[in-house]
Amino acid sequence: MTTDLDIAAGVKVPATTLAREATELIRDTTSELIYHHSRRVYFFGSLRGRGRDLSFDPELLYLGAMFHDVGLNEAFHTSGRRFEVDSANEAKRFLRTHGVPEDSVRRVWTAIALHTTPGIPEFMEPEVALVTAGVEYDVLGIGYGDLSAEDREAVVALHPRPDFKNEILRAFTDGVRSKPETTFGNVKADVLEHFVPGFERGDFVRTILDSRWPE
Fold this sequence. Notes:
The chain contains 10 helices and 2 strands; from the N terminus they run E-E-H-H-H-H-H-H-H-H-H-H. By secondary structure, the chain is mostly helical. InterPro entries: HD/PDEase_dom, HD_domain.
């Protein structure tokens, strides 16, 4: 059953067993910051999909949004993998234990794995594109004016964002500081450069020139 806590700006959280169990899992295993952010990603992604007249599976979009930052949890701090991949793998494990078809598992995995890789998801399946669109809207403010103030306020009223900019940057830093090598070539290198003294980002050109190839 959909409740008032599952509706904002005309967007409903899927009233399915899978969505409900995913919500409970994320609520129990992540911080309030990540829980509220993940829900906003679903609402904003859905609204941006509606604005683009995209046809998408709300349940798959919801699952991608809810799991997309699970890899920031302390349990993954020493995994040696990019946090996006840890997040995607957790979603895959959850979906497979619930007998979700492999094509749907693939879509959710891809949506999560690519959500910090701009320029690619927008050309893929709608669920993949809209997880990224929701993240970009909530974290970066990309397309901020594409939604009405009323819709923004409805979502934020349901899932507030107190001091969100600083809090999400702190979560990113804590999530990847112990595996700095995973930030090579991606946006999290910017985070560590700002907040971790002594961090040195990988240099793509230097990596090529210093490789063992003689020429």
